Sequence to fold (466 residues):
Amino acid sequence: MGETASIRLSRFAAETSIAGLSSELAGDVVNRLVDLIGVALAAVGDPTAKAVEETVIAWGGEGTSTTFGSGLQLSATSAALINGTLAHALDFDDTHLPSIVHPSSSVIPAALAVGEEVDASGDELLTSVAVGLEATVRLGMASYDVESRNHVFFERGLHATSILGTLGAAVAAGCLYDLGVHQLANAIGIASSMGAGLLEANRTGGTVKRLHNGWAAHSGVTAAQLARSGITGPPTVLEGRFGLFQAFSDDRWSIDPVTNGLGQHWEFPLVHYKPYPTNHFTHAGIDGALEALRQGVDIGSIRRIQLGVPEPTLRTIAEPIEEKRAPATGYAAKFSGPFTVAAALAAGSGLGVGHEDFTDAMVSDPLRLRLAGLVECVEDAVASERFPNAFGGVLRIWTDDPQPAEYRIVDSKGGPRTPLTDAELDAKFLDNVTRSNVVMVPGDLLETLRSTGCGTGVRTLMAELA
Fold:
């Protein structure tokens, strides 16, 4: 048997841990740390995160890993669970295409928790995050089906982030635990039996999805610890007859995206930042609505709205249509094409939508409900053709003029082709942080960010904490 895929991933991770990162890659990781910390701090007080924290506290035990917001000192596994839940609770974490995974919100909490436990250096932390992110997105790309232009996990209702984020978290944690190549491969093999997650909550409700990435971070750290203690995993856990990809994707997968160019080409810098705290499939519609405002649409004269999106996304943001037009909660509104378009139009500024637009109180707002009720969701062939390599769409608005105004979005804002500026990333970070009454992050992390030359948002935070 030649080198299996898990061995190749593990060798890449171990060798990178020794060699370190280029300054460009290290800077990219810092930006993702900053973004993720802000997103997690914004979720402090979220009911799901509070319930997870209460559960973890009831388990008992102390440690050296810090939880965001509360500053509790817990075991690495417990801190990773809480922080990963905070990171994904508001659906504001970054997204990779075409894998459609949110890599940072499982990998970074795992790396931070273990990094504190082992007193890792800043360079060790950044490198562990980089290899964990790279592993996650490459594993996600393996089940992208070119023929259907969709991710097989997503089509089957499986949350690729919570499943594959567990493996990425295990790689990041394993590097910080200084595992050798075969121990890292065992960690991947163990983590492959731990990852789980279903997407039905995106459609019809429930709060469990908010903790998916926390559980992935928790499980990834646990897998690395078990590998360190001698538990082994199957060497062909990824490509084997009863391995992860065959089990979750039948024959619709390829190992090539996982291993081709590994170490020469880095995929994680292509991960998209989110400018809005909503499901990424809704962003093209929001962008279209904001463009309509900038062009002077009179929302009082709107008679009909049509939102065209990639066909695979309709199941998440348009069905059941009655519930999407009148979501029951602010969180459910984040997964609604009609309501997110309505929120952007009703906000009126043309600058964007934020946390305040997706509260439980706001889903009862008469103006937003009226506008959402006018939205029809359909497939747009152009957007379907480019999905999931781009999140595009088209918004058509009918007013008193019988001909609709059309606002086409080729790439939603936040990706490499339409990037957020440094100022926009700083503004997002500061807006997220100001939502928290308590700002608590690992002290050494601030020193790491200070030493790597971060954005003004973090400099402002560090000045406040000085």
